């Protein structure tokens, strides 16, 4: 039972449901703009501001999907049905 700290909370890394909840709260904070960095570059003539987030949202979404499937398999004993989510 290895514990990791995500968003200030101790979470068991072997429990996919707890990991999903912790990472989903991190995703909501990123979407709300709480974890945004800002850089200001100033010269005598111009002033530029750059706002960015260091998060990789596609990787976070992939991990959330994987954890949701693992959590569903753990709680119900069945894997999620992906038949209707495929689009060509």
Total count of helical runs of at least 4 residues: 2
Could you say which overall geometry the principal axes of the C-alpha atoms support?
Answer: elongated
Q: What composes the largest sheet?
A: 2 strands, antiparallel
Q: Report the mean per-residue pLDDT as an integer.
A: 82
Q: What is the H/E order?
A: EEHEEH
In what order do the strands lie side by side in the largest sheet? 1-2
Our estimate of the beta-strand percent is 15-25%
Specify Rg, calculated over alpha carbons: 18 Å
Structural class: alpha+beta
Helix content: 40-55%
How many beta strands in the DSSP annotation?
Answer: 4
Domain module count: 1
């Amino acid at each position: 039972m290895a514990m990791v700290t995500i968003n200030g909370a101790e979470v068991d890394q072997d429990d996919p449901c707890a990991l999903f909840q912790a990472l989903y709260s991190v995703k909501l904070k990123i979407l709300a703009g709480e974890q945004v960095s800002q850089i200001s570059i100033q010269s005598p003539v111009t002033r530029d501001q750059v706002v960015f987030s260091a998060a990789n949202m596609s990787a976070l979404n992939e991990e959330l999907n994987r954890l949701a499937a693992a959590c569903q398999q753990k709680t119900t004993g069945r894997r999620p049905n992906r038949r209707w989510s495929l689009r060509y």
